[in-house]
Specification:
The complex is a heterodimer.
Chain A (H helix, E strand, L loop, with lengths): L8 H17 L4 H12 L5 H16 L5 H20 L5 H24 L3 H6 L1 H23 L2 H17 L30 H20 L5 H17 L1 H12 L13 H24 L6 H28 L5 H15 L12 H5 L5 H5 L7 H14 L2 H23 L30 H10 L3 H7 L2 H6 L14 H22 L21 H14 L6 H7 L10 H15 L5 H21 L10 H12 L9 H8 L5 H9 L7 H14 L4 H14 L4 H11 L1 H27 L1
Helix pairs in contact in A: 1-3, 2-3, 2-4, 3-4, 3-5, 4-5, 4-7, 5-7, 5-8, 7-8, 8-9, 8-10, 9-11, 10-11, 10-12, 12-13, 22-23, 22-25, 23-25, 23-26, 25-27, 26-27, 26-28, 27-29, 28-30, 29-31, 30-31, 31-32, 32-33
Chain B lengths: L1 H11 L20 E5 L5 H11 L4 E5 L4 E3 L8 E3 L6 H18 L2 H9 L36 E4 L2 H14 L6 E7 L5 H27 L17 H15 L5 E7 L1
Parallel strand pairs in B: 1-2, 1-5, 5-6
Antiparallel strand pairs in B: 3-4, 6-7
Classes of the chains: A mainly alpha, B alpha/beta.
Organism (chain A): Apiospora saccharicola
Protein name (chain A): Symplekin/Pta1 N-terminal domain-containing protein
InterPro entries (chain A): ARM-like, Symplekin/Pta1, Symplekin/Pta1_N
């Protein structure tokens, strides 16, 4: 070391690097190495050595590997050298940079060390202390002068130095300073009665330096390096020095990072404007995120929104402005826009790369609008705006927009169909971290359940994922499952069932009667194969008879009481409807009645067959046949053929049914109808011939007026009966007379 | 570690890439670089490799909370801890899991490359800036960055840039050392990472050239009298250099700021 001149500069630097490696490996060597190198790197040394030395010192005082108290001790070794280096008016800028950085690291240590040294004895016994503080003060005043005159690259370091001074000379937010945090060295450490450090003047100095720092934001400075360096140094001041935060935030709020944007945008100015805008935004976003409840949060939010808006204006507006020329009048501009709106409306196709769902539907190029979070607009307002817009929009523009989006989706499908190449497969797996609270992320809007659904419905999810366009898979259009409906209670079931049935009857009524009966297709005919009235009748009848057959037996039995308290059985309610439907126009709808009753009869037989205990099976045929007959009998007139037809076509006839027919004869005009119907049965339905004749006999017996007609038929079919009646009547005539005589006699 | 060292030695013996490495000799001044992406796997590692092949001091990090790699489906990523899992063990694990799949999507090739560069992915937020990194001597590009501080940070995605800046705000700038943080937007796939790595190397070359020129301008600059502005410093030239570079690489949008460690 004694004879550095003997070695070449690079060789000596290599030696110095060796010493540096030593301390990097073990920081306890710092005192020796610094002491050994100080003579080599001093103010008189060659610039290469000064640069290396200043760099080395800045590293030594920056590294967290060395404790604060170690740095304190080291600082006493280097302050004089630093002072001499910084005071050289012809000093190399790079040396200055490193020296100022070193000074910035040492300054808070000097404050702490000086302020802690309050014992009068130590001060007297250690006059070097005063010298150290004097050196530090000299360095400070030199740096603050360099701040005005030096090149930008040095000035940014002056800004940082000033930041450390402000930090050290303003009261901290922490009342209990953390001992080993260099950022927590503050005015709180300085006793108010300190002999060398005057608390008030130090605070005043800090306040002045802060104003000077912020000046770059208030002037229309275009020095991007200074602006960035300042903004990026402010966060800790705002957070940890309450006395400074208000002033700093006000300065930021009045700062316009776009002031350069009015100048023609060269590649360099673009970089600069973007840099200042993003740096400002990041600082405020950081503050908002770090302490969302801070009292400035709403203003920060406001400023950020304004920033986004003007960014959009600057970046989009620049080209638009040029297109419109220099028309100053707003009205003119408006008129122009209306005139040109249509031809200039363009939907740019999607570029390469992954797209979000929002990208696919975003038709505007305006970056501000694109990032606007629509979900913040209340739904009612959004609806109003949408309706108004849709009502007014030019159809051709709407068509073009739809076409554009359709093309984009087609493009995405096309792009997805191409085989994925490992070279272009996206590797960015969606993350859960939240670094960008102010830039809405369009991640997959799926909840776990939907994802599970998707997985369920996609057994080979991997190959499917690859086939689908990335944007569509991120869209996540999985199977959507409605929540299961509330189970209906029995009353609701009945009600809804009736509603359905009523609708079917409505259809039947509207279909009306078939104008002309189609030829019967015989045995091959399938029930309900056409959608005419017959088909519906079949459906309805079977719905009534078979749908619930075998169920609800008990309630069906109760039905006979016609007191449906707990709710009517669905089948019976359909039967009621059919019954009403037939009666509404029974002459025309007798065929409906016949097919219905046929279904009932068939069902009864099947039920009886399958039921183990025949007695328990509820039977419907007879009941409903009787009801129908009872209901339309009063409305028959003498010429009606409907009764004859009804009796001849229904599947089963019994004495009870025929006894109803018999009652027709109470009306003398109906006697012929009743007897003709019965005669038809006697002739055409041999199985019921006997009960029909029995009924005829009963008519003969019960209705005097019917005797002549009935006797005519009976004479042919039951001559024995008439013969017997003749004898009887002769006998009874005697008896009558004798009875009369007896009565008279009594 | 033996295997890693073996690979490291093998790849280190290859000649440095020829693309755009202009005059970065062994003796000239070199800026110290740091590359950052989300998982410290693809983009930052590609750039790390390219910069180290060009003999620049370089380290790399990821800003994500975890290392995430694609898995068999979009909902089943392979997730690892930063600083705790080596590239080598990831490579072995994925090869074991589904060699065909991870060969097809290029993961094995990528991780194989990474284990030839350094031990494992490191997280930006856990990086102790300014703590010496002597124990990383076997990492590619470790030479010259033993002090654990970089001059330039390249991020490969806007949100990584945001994460880096936010983290620097959080740290409170204790080191008083300026750092240029530059985002170069690169899509996260192998092809784009390779192109992006070339773009970053080109930018690094331009920046380093300016820094060398500043160094060579030895001698007094009489700025103190206010008479001469002198030639523009490296710092001042950075926006110019990025603007010019952007013209050469229009598909890699860049964002820049001057921040503090």
């Amino acid at each position: 070391m004694a004879a550095p001149g003997q070695l070449s500069v690079p060789d000596q630097i290599r030696q110095l690097e060796g010493a540096r490696k030593l301390v990097l490996g073990d920081v306890s060597y710092y005192p020796q190495v610094i002491q050994a190198t100080l003579p080599i790197i001093g103010p008189a040394a060659q610039v290469e050595f000064r640069r290396w030395g200043a760099d080395f010192l800045s590293e030594a005082f920056a590294t967290p590997a060395v404790t604060l108290s170690q740095k304190e001790t080291l600082s006493l070794l280097v302050l004089e050298t630093l002072m001499l280096l910084v005071q050289d008016p012809k000093q190399d800028p790079m040396v200055l940079r490193s020296v100022i950085q070193t000074a910035a690291s040492i300054y808070p240590l000097a404050i702490r060390w000086t302020s802690a040294d309050t014992r009068p004895n130590t001060r007297i016994n250690n006059p070097y202390d005063t010298a150290a503080w004097d050196h530090m003060s000299a360095i400070k005043s030199r740096i603050l002068r360099l701040w005005d005159t030096s090149p930008v690259t040095v000035r940014i370091c002056c800004v940082k130095f000033a930041q450390r001074v402000v930090l050290a000379q303003m009261p901290s937010v922490n009342t209990e300073p953390r001992k080993n945090d260099p950022l927590d060295i503050s005015l709180a450490l300085i006793p108010s009665s300190h002999s060398a450090l005057d608390k008030h003047s130090l605070e005043a100095e800090a306040s002045g330096l802060l104003d000077r720092m912020l000046g770059v934001l208030q002037d229309s400075s275009s020095e991007v390096l200074i602006v960035d360096a300042t903004l990026n140094a402010l966060s800790v001041l705002i957070r940890a020095r309450p006395a400074a935060s208000n002033r700093i935030l006000n300065a930021i709020f009045s700062f316009n990072p776009f002031k350069l944007a009015s100048a023609p945008l060269t590649p360099k100015t673009k970089v600069i404007v973007r840099s200042m805008e993003k740096t400002t935004r990041m600082l405020l976003a950081h503050l908002a995120r770090r302490d969302p409840r801070n009292p400035h949060a709403p203003r920060i939010q406001q400023y950020l929104e304004r920033l986004m808006a003007s960014k959009a204006e600057v970046l989009d507006g620049a080209s638009r402005k040029r297109a419109h020329g220099d028309s100053a009048s707003g009205i003119e501009v408006k008129r122009q826009r209306i005139g040109h709106a249509q031809p200039t409306f363009q939907i740019s196709p999607l570029g390469a790369g992954p797209h979000s769902l929002a990208d696919v539907f975003a038709l505007t190029q305006n970056a501000g609008l694109r990032t606007f979070d629509v979900s913040q607009v209340p739904a009612s307002l959004a609806a109003k705006i949408s309706v108004n817009t849709i009502a007014r929009i030019d159809t051709s523009i709407l068509d073009r927009a739809i076409e554009g989006v359709r093309d984009r989706l087609a493009y995405l499908h096309e792009a997805a169909r191409q085989a994925p190449s490992p070279e272009t497969t996206a590797l960015d797996v969606e993350e859960d971290d939240d670094y960008e609270p102010y830039e809405p992320a369009y991640g997959p809007a799926e909840n776990d359940e939907q994802i599970l659904n998707k997985l369920d419905s996609e057994p080979s999810s991997q190959s499917r994922e690859q086939q689908r366009p990335a944007v569509l898979s991120s869209l996540g259009l999985p199977t959507f499952k409605l929540p299961p409906p509330q189970p209906l209670n029995p009353n609701q079931v009945i009600k809804v069932g009736q509603g359905t049935v009523a609708r079917v009857f409505g259809i039947m009524s509207s279909l009306g009667d078939p104008a002309n009966r189609r030829a019967k297709v015989g045995m091959n005919r399938l029930a309900a194969s056409s959608s005419d009235r017959d088909a519906w009748i079949t459906i309805i009848a079977r719905l009534a008879t078979r749908s619930s057959a075998g169920l609800n037996e008990v309630s069906l039995k109760d039905e006979d009481d016609s007191s449906p308290v707990g709710g009517m059985h669905l089948g019976n309610s359909i039967r009621e409807s059919l019954y009403t439907y037939v009666l509404e126009d029974f002459r025309k709808r007798i065929d409906v009645a016949v097919s219905w009753l046929s279904e009932e009869w068939y069902n009864d037989k099947v039920q009886q067959k399958s039921a183990s205990d025949a007695g328990s099976t509820p039977l419907h045929y007879e009941k409903w046949a009787l009801r129908l007959l009872d209901s339309f009998l009063p409305y028959l007139h003498a010429q009606d053929k409907v009764l004859t037809r009804f009796l001849s076509e229904i599947p089963e006839i019994n004495a009870a049914l025929l006894s109803r027919v018999k009652t027709l004869c109470r009306d003398p005009s109906m006697i012929t109808l009743a007897l003709t119907s019965l005669l038809y049965l006697v002739i055409m339905r041999p199985p019921v011939r006997e009960i029909a004749l029995d009924t005829m006999q009963n008519i003969w017996l019960e209705y005097e007026e019917a005797r002549p007609s009935a006797a005519r038929h009976l004479a042919k079919w039951r001559p024995a009966f008439l013969e017997a009646q003749k004898q009887l009547s002769e006998g009874s005539g005697q008896m009558d007379m004798s009875a009369t005589a007896a009565a008279v006699s009594t | 570690m033996d295997a890693i060292n073996g690979i490291d030695a093998a790849t280190a013996s290859q000649p440095p890439a020829q693309n755009g490495v202009e005059g970065v000799g062994s003796s000239g001044y070199k800026l110290k670089f740091c590359t950052v992406c989300a998982s410290n796997q693809n983009r930052s590692m590609e750039a790390h490799l390219q910069l180290s092949k060009a003999k620049y001091p370089v380290i790399s990090f990821g800003t994500g909370s975890l290392v995430r790699l694609p898995g068999p489906s979009i909902t089943q990523p392979n997730v690892y801890q930063f600083n705790k899992t080596s590239y080598d063990s990831m490579w072995k694990e994925l090869k074991e899991k589904d060699e065909d799949l991870y060969t097809r999507n290029g993961l094995l090739k990528m991780i194989d490359r990474n284990r030839g560069v350094k031990w494992g992915p490191e997280r930006w937020q856990d990086w102790q800036i300014g703590i010496p990194r002597l124990e990383h001597a076997t990492d590619r590009g470790s030479e010259g960055i033993e002090g654990g501080v970089a001059d330039i940070v390249f991020t490969c995605e806007e949100r990584c840039w945001d994460a880096v800046i936010d983290d620097l705000h959080n740290r409170g700038t204790p080191l008083n050392k300026p750092v240029h943080v530059i985002n170069v937007d690169i899509k996260d796939n192998h092809e784009e990472a390779s192109i992006g790595g070339q773009g970053i190397l080109d930018l690094a070359n331009s920046l380093n050239k300016a820094a060398q020129e500043e160094r060579e301008a030895v001698g007094a600059m009489s700025f103190d009298t206010g008479s001469a502005a002198g030639r523009a410093s490296f710092d001042e030239r950075v926006p110019d250099i990025i603007g010019e570079w952007q013209g050469r690489w229009p598909n890699l949008p860049a964002t820049w700021t001057l921040a503090w460690f």
